[in-house]
Specification:
about 400 residues; mainly alpha; globular
Length: about 400
Amino acid sequence: MQLTDLNYQKKKLPENLSKIGLILLVLGAVLGIVAFFVDNTRASFNYLLSYTFLISIAVGALFLIALEYVTNADWSVPFRRIVEIFAGLIPFLAILVIPLLFKMHDIYHWTHAEAVAQDEILQGKEPYLNIPFFITRVFVILGIWYIFYFILSRNSLKQDSSGDQNLTTINIRLSAIFIPLFAITISITAFDWLMSVDPHWFSTIFGVYYFSGTVIAILAAVTIAAVYFKENGYLHERITQDHLYSLGALMFVFVNFWAYIAFSQYMLIWYADLPEETLWFLQKWEGSWAIFSIFLLIIHFVVPYILLLSQPAKMDPLRLKISAVVLLFAHFFDLYWMVMPEMPGLEKGYIFSWIDFVFPVAAIGFVMIVFNMKAKKENLIPVGDPKLKRGLDFHL
């Protein structure tokens, strides 16, 4: 355990986190394997949802790290190590994507040669939507994310022992390079994995839509971890409700940003009234999917907006935890709403299946195990960062 002049001492984390995570992962993984034998198509679609959800957490965390560096923020420094630990999911994305690559034929209509041969639109998109180019994009993007994660996190950890301020300067420059690359890669990821499930539909704002949900998801995950560690004495004692307020304020901002982007996408498509664009939204109002569409607006905007509206709410640990859990669920529900109506057999309405609950359970368990594993090895705050004192002294 390391003691610094800022009076922070790393404490041993409880073992129950790892045990709960392992139980959830094993249970979800076993049932997930069974699901592929019971209903291969539905299992494949659900695996896609959980994978894109994990991308939101992992790459969203890397974005927050880069954002802190380029904006020279102080208040977020005491929380940055928590964000870095969530970004530690990035190396696993290249492994978790492999089963999905073998299931592309079950998910994506454009992978069927006979369908492309009979469809003029798919033929026009074939130079982009083809399996070799798709897989190339996937691994190039995963490689970019991993390189920036590895260097940024390595420099941050190295700074814990060396205190070298030049490492912060290096990370600022790397972050300035990463931000535009992030904008490009997260948009391509949204287009490839999510939008191409319906290859006839397109939206130029869809990448921003996925980005807004991604940031909400990682802010919610960081808030849950930060409040938990603060309440149980694992963070620095000088972290106050003022620091929590900033997390709550950011969640509130991006709740509004998501609503703005969602409305903008809908309004522009409604106003243009082009058949190739409107069909995607019309399908979301078919049968019971209409209930899902209304519920999405409530759970992703109305409820968190009310929960986080007042200033005291943004500082209340209990209110923050509730809001964060709601928003994490809302982001996954948003992904479900985007993708599942495109699954064969569900076009006219939702049909219940236990398979829908399997992969989220495995994903939660996986995140808990990776987070606990890294948190045991690393300080929970970046004790060598030159801005840490200013971060701990932060007040509204």
